[in-house]
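Many introductory courses stop at the sequence. We go one step further.
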Amino acid sequence: MIDKVITSLQDVESMQEINLITGLEFDSTDNWVDLSAFDENPELKKYVKDYEFDALQNGEADYIAFRFDD
């Protein structure tokens, strides 16, 4: 099976906030979430573009991979 992934690059502050929301280690540089993570944590939507979230909802993507962009 091949997963479809959207990469969402984040600055340090946003990445730390995302990690806190999802319960991942504060300094993690990668954080993969699926649609269920957005259902449980709707505040994650402010970190993605509308078309990225739409792709996740429509099954065009399986995950959004938040990544630290240095």
